[in-house]
Amino acid sequence: MGIANSLRRARRRSGASLRSIASRAGVGAGNLSAIENGRRDPTTSTVDKLASAIGVEWVPILTEGRSSAVRAAEEIAGWEAQGLPDRAYRRFIQLADDLATADAVTRVLLAVEEPDDSHPRWVDAIAALLEVRLREASAPLPAWVTERRGHPDVVWEPQRSVYPLPVSADLADVAPEFLRRGIAIERGELASA
């Protein structure tokens, strides 16, 4: 559902209605609704028409098995919804690893689309992670990452295992990009094993 979710997010961010985008793209509103809701897979031609009508550009990239930040956020939200916070945390760490092994251009492309805000603290953590990984590569930060302020006055720490652990993160070992957003994930947690 990557393309379908991306189309829906792009359309909503543009402020255009489903009907107006469908009309501009020359597709039926019911067809666009089915695409956005994952009930129909669009053809490449339809994706191109919809992207043009929304005012976005689709850029194919070689990801070599890595997923975008927005895809990781969707998967994290799914694990949280299933009551599996340990898997949500592991997915976050996998994103950290994916970004660490990518070149600067790929890092930017994997970071460019803003995730939905269904789990705002996880999105804060992802924004902090992207800031760390993009700065490591001297790459530019997407606007959504720099605008994501989080809640520095309320420290949040993800649950790392099925059962909550009595040990908390050492805030002295948390990167400033995370602290500024109120996220307690230590630098060492982001290092690949």
Molecular structure report:
By secondary structure, the chain is mostly helical. The protein has two domains: 2-54, 434 Repressor (Amino-terminal Domain); 69-190, no CATH class. Helix content is 53%, strand content 0%. The protein is built from ten helices and no strands. The chain has helices spanning 2-14, 18-25, 29-36, 44-54, 69-81, 85-100, 104-111, 120-136, 143-147, 176-179. The mean pLDDT is 89.
- Please tell me what the overall shape is: elongated
Instruction: Label the structural class.
Output: mainly alpha
N- to C-terminal separation?
A: 30 Å
Low-confidence stretches: none
Number of strands: 0
Beta-strand percent range = under 5%
Helical fraction: 40-55%
Q: In the residues, how many domains can be counted?
A: 2
Instruction: Give the radius of gyration.
Output: 18 Å
Largest sheet: none
Question: How many alpha or pi helices?
Answer: 10
Could you report the average pLDDT, rounded to the nearest whole number? 89
Q: Give me the strand/helix succession.
A: HHHHHHHHHH
Throw out a few tags for this protein.
2 domains, 10 helices, mainly alpha, 53% helix, single chain
Please give the structural blueprint.
Blueprint: H1 2-14, H2 18-25, H3 29-36, H4 44-54, H5 69-81, H6 85-100, H7 104-111, H8 120-136, H9 143-147, H10 176-179
